[in-house]
Amino acid sequence: MSNSHTDSHVKEIDGNVSVNRNEDKEWTPQSWRSKPIRQGVVYEDQEHLQQVLNKLQHLPPMVTPSEIYKLRSQLREVALNKAFLLQGGDCAELFEYCSQDPIESKLKVLLQMSLVLVWGARIPVVRIARMAGQYAKPRSSSTEKVEGREIPSFRGDNINGYDPSDRKPDPERLLRAYFHSAATLNYVRSIIGSGFADLHRLSDCSLRHVRSDRTRQEYQTIIDRLADSLDFMRVIGADSPFSPISSSLYSVDMFISHEGLLLDYEQCLTRLLSDPETGEKKWYNIGTHFLWIGDRTRQLNEAHVEYFRGIQNPIGIKVGPSMESNELQKLLDIINPNKEIGKITLITRYGADQVEKYLPAHIQAVKASGHIVIWACDPMHGNTKQSSSGVKTRYFNSIIEELSKVIRIHKDNNSQMNGVHFELTGEAVTECIGGSMQLADADLALNYKTFCDPRLNYEQSLDVAFLIAKYYEK
Ligand code: PEP
Ligand code: MN
Q1: Region (Disordered): which ranges (predicted)?
Q2: Which are the contacts of 23, defined by CB distance < 8 A and separation ≥ 6?
Q3: Which of 87, 225, 361, 424 makes the best surface tag, with the fewest CB within 10 Å?
Q4: Are 395 and 444 in contact (CB under 8 A)?
Q5: Which residues line ligand 1 (CB under 6 A)?
Q6: What is the pTM for the complete model shown?
Q7: Interface ipTM
C-alpha cells in the first residue's frame, strides 16, 4: 500500500478528474469512488452537488495536523493502558443543536463524567465528543413509515430533513454541515479556553437538577475533596495558572469526532499538509480529529475502508456480532499497515446477551495479529429495544450488563477495556429506561426528543461514570 501522492493527484482533486482505476493500490482522497459503496447518496442535481463540493474543497481546515497528532499521542497512552478514553454525544446531531445551551450542556456532562473517572480510577482521561459534525446516519432501510406513509428514511441533517416533506437529498446541506460544525467547534474552543473546564470553578456547576440524592452526594464529595487538594497545592505554590505543571487544573483537551459516512463530504475535507514532526506532506481529514467507520460500512473491499486507509487521523472501527475474526485482522492490516499503537480504536457493540459469544475470539484475533488497539465498549448499539409504546429505547441495566461483562471478559483474556463510547446528552431527556432516577417505560413520553437512537440523559450519564469508576477504583 502506498499513501504517496504526486502533483498530478493534487491536480485531480482540484480539477475533479476521476481516479485512474488501473492503479488499484494507489490511494487518493477519491480512490474510494472506484469501489462499491454502502449507504451511498444519490443526488438528483449533479451540477449543484459539484458546485457545493468545489466550494467545500476551499474552505479552511477546522482542525490541524498538530491537534490530530496530539490526540494520536494521547491515544497511544490509552492503548498502552496508561489513560482511559471517554467518547460520547448524540446519536445524530441536528443543525439546531448548534446553539449555546445544548453545546454547554453536552460539554458539561462529558467533563463531569471524566472528572468522576479521573477521580475514582486515578487514570488520565482522553475526551472525544461525538459532536461538531455527527450529522450523517446509516440506516437499515431506505424507507420508513411516517404517519401511515412509506417515505424515504431520515438520513441525517447533512443529507435530508427530518420533516417528512424534506426527504430528498439536498447538496446544500453539505455546506450547512460544514458551517454548523465550524460554529459548534468554535464555541467549544472558546468556552474551554475561557475556564469552562477549570477545576477551581467546579462548584459553579452544581447538580441542583439531579433527582437522586446519592448521585448528588457522591459528586459533591469529589468536589469537596478536590477543593481541599487544590487549596493545599495553592498553599505550597504548586498551583498557578501560569505554570505549565499545573495548567491541567485550568483546562483540558476536548477533541471532536463523527462517523465518516458521507464520503463526498469527507473527501473535500481531506488535505495534504505537513506532518508536524517531520514536515513530510501527508493526508489529513481536517473536518474532525477522530473519525469512525460504522458497523454497516466496514467491508474490506468497499469504499469506506478504502477512504479510511489513507488518512493520518486516529480511526475508530465499530465491531459487532457479524465481524469475523479473520476479517478483523485484515481490516487492521489494511487501515493500519505500520501497526501504530493506538491508531485504531475498536468500538465493540454486541449487546449484553451476545458479548460473551463474540468478544473473546475478537480479543484473541487481535492479539494474534500483533496490533495494539484501544478496546472501547459501546454498550448502546447492541441493546436497542422497542418500548411498549413502540419507540426505540435502551435499558440502563442492559447497558451496565454489557459494560461489566466487557470489563470481565478482557480481564479473563489478559486484555483491558480501555475506554467507553456512549450516546448521551446533557439534557433531561427520557429515552433510556432505568438509572438512579428510575425512569420507567411509561415515563418515556415525558421528554423523548431523539431523532435517531435513544441517549442516556444527564443523570444516567453520571450514573454510568460512577459505576465505571467503581470498577477501576484503586
Ligand atoms: C452509531 O454509532 O450511531 C451507529 C450507527 O453505530 P453502529 O455503526 O455501531 O451501528
Ligand atoms: Mn446511534
Answers
A1: 1-31
A2: none
A3: 225
A4: no
A5: 91, 138, 294-296, 318, 349, 381, 453
A6: 0.93
A7: 0.99
